[in-house]
Design a protein that fits this description.
Blueprint lengths: L12 H17 L17 H6 L12 H14 L4 H15 L3 H15 L3 H13 L2 H12 L2
Length: 147
């Protein structure tokens, strides 16, 4: 007497491929998922990262974790930049690190509010700005650019 086992369900090739793609996507995205408590302190940065982030050295350990992680990402791309791009990066980082943390947060909130304005409201603000005396506009521009 011969026993015949019940047929095993066979997954289609498309289903197997879908599972493989999902697995590969999950594995590839794993390095992108970083916990906030993994943000490095200054001493944990590589020499290359410290070079790129030198303007932030004094305030690095006080920065919020999410900002440190973003800056580490930028520092990792620093070596691939051209010398002109590196100079621009350093200049902007220096300018941005000069204000205090509360001042930077205020600037972020103000920008976020500005982006929520309608086109008409933005046009009205630009019109008010343009009505100012040219010297006042130049002074505001110098102050905003850190000169």
């Amino acid at each position: 007497m011969r026993f015949v086992s019940a047929p095993q369900p066979v997954a289609s090739a498309a289903a197997r491929n879908l599972v493989r793609v999902a697995l590969v996507c999950t594995l590839l995205s794993a390095p992108l998922i970083v916990r906030a408590d993994d943000a490095p302190v200054w001493a944990q940065l590589t020499a290359e990262q410290q070079t790129a982030l030198r303007p932030l050295q004094a305030s690095w350990n006080r920065l919020p974790d999410y900002q440190r992680m973003r800056r580490v990402g930028a520092a990792n791309r620093y070596a691939a930049l051209t010398p002109a791009q590196q100079a621009r990066f350093t200049s902007r980082l220096s300018r941005w690190s000069a204000p205090t943390l509360p001042e930077r947060e205020h600037a972020r909130r103000a920008y976020k509010q500005y982006t929520r304005l309608s086109d008409a409201e933005r046009a009205q603000l630009r019109e008010q700005y343009m009505k100012q005396h040219p010297e006042l506009r130049m002074a505001a521009t110098r102050k905003a650019s850190g000169d």
